[in-house]
Specification:
By secondary structure, the chain is α+β, with helices and mostly antiparallel strands. The protein has four helices and five strands. The longest helix has 39 residues. The chain starts with 7 loop residues before the first helix and ends with a strand.
Length: 193
């Protein structure tokens, strides 16, 4: 039991960490440390009360200030009308003494863009003012070099119904005339035999 109760000499040699690890019974046996702890604790609450007292007195003042701040909200710049927004000065550019006269440049007379042309054979002329032209293309395959034949059918506008089935015609790309017609007949190159 003598080992459990430390002498005052050994208590003085202990570090504060060791004192913190002691059980409450061991802390009660050490008389040197208790007065120090008691002296610190009464001062701390007194200091806290002193700090809290002005805070309690200031609280009503803060409560009065809060409604004033709510009523006087600072308006954001983006919600203000343009006339009330903050004006930023822009650097003034130099104004020439005389204004240049507006001159119109002569437009060269040319067609609007490059229109594509195709030559093909009329497959159907049953519709009014519309012909179906079959255009054959012959290409060699880029990798295998085999000659590949492809054909595409175009609906073309024929105003006078001049083309018949079997005619070789020349058609030109144009503005959309209907849902499927984007071409128009330019000339009948070769009539059917």
């Amino acid at each position: 039991m003598a080992d459990e109760n430390n002498t005052p000499e050994t208590n003085e040699e202990e570090t504060p960490e060791a004192a913190a690890d002691e059980t409450p019974e061991q802390a009660a046996d050490a008389p040197a440390e208790e007065p120090v702890a008691e002296e610190v604790t009464p001062e701390a609450p007194a200091a806290e009360e002193a700090e809290e007292a002005p805070a309690v007195e200031e609280a009503p003042a803060d409560e009065e200030a809060v409604p004033a701040a709510v009523s006087e909200k600072k308006k954001k710049g983006k919600r203000l009308p343009r006339a009330q927004r903050r004006q930023r000065s822009r650097p003034q550019r130099e104004r020439p003494a005389e204004r240049k006269p507006i001159t119109r440049l002569h437009k060269p007379e040319s067609e609007r863009g490059r229109r594509q042309e195709r030559r093909g054979v009329v497959v159907s002329s049953a519709m009014d003012k519309t012909i179906v032209v079959k255009v054959d293309t012959i290409k060699s395959h880029p990798r295998y070099k085999k000659v590949v034949r492809r054909s595409v059918k175009f609906h073309a506008h024929d105003e006078q119904n001049a083309a018949n089935v079997g005619d070789v015609v020349r058609i030109v790309e144009t503005r959309p005339v209907s849902k499927s017609k984007h071409w128009r007949l330019v000339e009948v190159v070769e009539a059917a035999k």
